[in-house]
Structures are given as C-alpha cells and as structure tokens.
Design a protein that fits this description.
Number of helices: 10
Number of strands: 18
Distance between the termini: 17 Å
Helix content: 25-40%
Radius of gyration: 21 Å
Shape: globular
Oligomer: single chain
Strand order of the largest sheet: 8-9-10-12-11-13-14-15
CATH class of the largest domain: Alpha Beta
Number of domains: 2
Structural class: alpha+beta
Low-confidence stretches: 66-79, 107-112
Strand content: 15-25%
Largest sheet: 8 strands, antiparallel
Order of helices and strands: EEHEEEEHEHHHHHEEEEEHEEEEEHEH
Mean pLDDT: 81
CATH topology of the largest domain: Beta-Lactamase
C-alpha cells in the first residue's frame, strides 16, 4: 500500500504509478512513502509536477504494466495495480517478478484459475486493508483476550488514560468488529473467547478465531505457537496443524488441507461478515471447488502458503510500528 501526502491531506493509492501521475494531474507536490515488497525497505521521494526529488534509496525503481491486451484486463486493480510497485533496486524487482511468473504458471496449470498475485503482493494489500488504525487500542484488547480473559472497559479506560466518552467513541469506530459479552466486556477482536469453527489453543488456553487466516496471522504477530483445529465446511473433516511464530506449519492433517482467502477491495470489505466468511479451511482443493465456483474472487492457498502470507503481514506491521 502506497501513501502520499501534501501539507493538508494524506491519500492512499493502489499503484506506485498513481503516486507519480497524481501530482502532475493536480499540479501539486507530494511526499511519497512506500515499501519494497521484497525487502520490506521503506522508499521515500518527493514528486512535483515537473520532477522527482530526494529519492531514497537513490537506486529505487518502479514497475509498471503498459501492454494490456484488449479483453485481458478484467479488473484494473487486480490486473494492473498488482504490477505497480516501488522496489529498493532493479535486482529486487527482478527477483519478485521472476518468482511470480513461475508461481503463476504453476497455479494456472494446476488449478485452471486466473494466476494469483505473489504472496508479497497479497501481504502488502492485506496489511493495508486489515491493519487496525487504533493500534494502542487494538493491541491490548487482543493481548488480554489471548490470555483467556475478557477486557473490562474500565480497565481499558485506565490503561489508555481516556474518559468514558472518548473510549466509547473510539470503540464505536471499531464496530462491528468488536465482540462484547452481556456484561459489556470485550471478548473478541479477531481472536475470541466465543466458540467458532476455528479453535486456537495457546498452551493450555483454548481460544477461537473469527476466520481461518487469523490462525496463521496471530502466531507471528504475537510471537506465540498455536495448535489449530478447524472443520472443512464441505466434508466435515477436522483439519489440524501447529502454527509457529516463524510462520511455519507443522503436523498438518490432512496434508492436502488448503485455505481460502480474499484480498478486500476496500476497507469497508474487511468486516467479519465479509472477510471472515470467505476465509475458511478445506480438506482439499477438490472439497473447495464448489465454494470457489460461487466465490470467483477468492484465492485458494496451501496452508503453508497462507502461513507465509501471515508472516509477511506481521512483518510489515512490525516495520510500520517502528
């Protein structure tokens, strides 16, 4: 995700190229910050209507697809913006697109579906759409729930040193993605005390997650190891594995297990009702076939691939916090 800012506004763009054309079209100067999807390195520059200034690193490059054959661009954002990135250098750009070309060919031949974006691209977009914009509020909630305890608003208000009205206003901005019990305590935000189809065990503490992707995102985000048990919604087959803080999957059973995932087009699509209902664990690609036919925008990844995306998202979040 790429952001530009002038003295009065901040805007987010889907493609690196947009950040270069926007100042020209509107006759203004902009400060641009992006991140190399290969190395995670931050890239900074100033774009004026006439030129680019203060490029850091100086060897940074931008990728762009310019030869889109008629009829092949089904979705501009997916087909064009997937290829518009800033890279720390020409070599890092080559590494990503060479690897992506190999993976796309393999997946197209093996699954008969449109080629997927690279894991780095998926992670970058997920981070941009799923990250909590109130990190100081979200993190203590998640940390407390992962200890197996509900979060009392009074305790949260004291730790944040805010008034009751301010806390209510901030929580309202998270709704509907906060889960409360009858006493008004917070019991869920991605990870929850309320049973779902995704069981998430930390040590002896039994928890649950809202969606399948949470089971591979939370371990690297919280630096914990989790035992996961879910159920294929088609066959009813249990799916179990261990997710590590390093983004590694161990003891996957059955070994053919796969995970569905959607990259939200906009932040309003990131609610539990939309995102989580399309992030599921299936016994196999065959078991997921009917679901995919009804949800053409859904990606189907191996559990190992999904865990790699989760690790990349967690890494970007940690870099963004520094």
């Amino acid at each position: 995700m790429i952001a530009t800012a002038n003295p009065s506004a901040t805007r987010v763009f889907f493609s690196a190229f947009d950040t270069l054309t926007y100042p020209v079209e509107l006759h203004l100067s902009a400060q641009v910050t992006s991140r190399c999807p290969v190395t995670g390195r931050s890239i900074h520059l100033t774009v004026t209507p006439e030129q680019v200034l203060d490029l850091d690193p100086a060897e940074a490059q931008v990728s762009l697809i310019v030869d889109v054959a008629a009829g092949c661009c089904h979705n501009v954002r997916e087909d064009v913006c997937n290829y518009g990135h800033f890279f720390a250098s020409r070599e890092t750009g080559k590494r990503l697109f060479n690897a992506e070309a190999k993976k796309s060919k393999s997946k197209k031949e093996g699954r008969g579906r449109m080629p997927y974006p690279s894991r780095e691209t998926i992670a970058e977009r997920l981070w941009g759409q799923l990250r909590c914009e109130q990190e100081d509020l979200c993190r203590p909630i998640v940390q407390q729930v992962t200890r197996g305890k509900p979060v009392a608003p009074a305790a949260l208000r004291a730790s944040l040193q805010v008034s009751q009205d301010e806390l209510e206003q901030r929580l309202a901005r998270l709704l509907p993605d906060v889960e409360f019990d009858r006493a008004g305590n917070i019991v869920g935000l991605g990870v929850t005390l309320v049973p779902t189809s995704h069981r998430f065990q930390l040590g002896g503490q039994v928890l649950y997650t809202w969606c399948a992707f949470d089971t591979v995102l939370l371990p690297p985000s919280l630096h914990v190891e989790a035992q996961v048990q879910s159920t294929c919604p088609v066959t009813g087959q249990p799916i179990t594995f261990v997710a590590t803080p390093e983004g590694v999957i161990r003891d996957l059973s059955p070994a053919s297990g796969v995970m569905s995932l959607i990259v939200p087009a906009q932040r309003s699509d990131c609610s539990r009702a939309t995102f989580c209902q399309q992030s599921l664990l299936f016994q196999s690609e065959q078991a997921a076939a009917t679901f995919l036919a009804d949800h053409p925008d859904v990606l189907l990844l191996s559990v190992e691939e999904a865990a790699s995306v989760g690790r990349l998202v967690a890494r970007i979040c940690s870099l963004d916090a520094t």
